[in-house]
Amino acid sequence: MADADWLAELRRVLNAELPQYVKDLAEAVPTSVVKDIVNDNRSPPRPAAPPSNVSIMGAGRVQDFDVGPKYRPYVPPKEDDKATTDRSGWREAPKIDNWKPPGLREMDAMMDQQDAVDRAARIRELAEAAAVQRALESAEPKEREPKARGGKK
Prior knowledge:
This protein is mostly helical. It is built from four helices and no strands.
């Protein structure tokens, strides 16, 4: 009962230090309602986990799956078969020296065509500018060369 006495004393001390509005709120809500709210917010109990498949290493068992290349019997490749005789599983990476992304040829052709269109437009603009320049030069009267001044000697 020492624990019950100690708990009652702890509650008395804590309640004595609480402000009046907290005491009013605690008295307004019964303890059973608070317990129900807490229980409603708890997650439901989880079902028991299924037992795990534990096997002892080295114990005899039937294996009906592929055990890997190291333990397969060696079968030499046929002439037309492209399989390698290397059974380690290592493969050389494919060479990418001459690799080009798909669609690159088409994109290059489209860009070359647009370059030709742009060049033709630029030539047309330059020709028009030259024609305008020639027209302006022919319309202006040619300036007379100034006469040479006679200098005093």
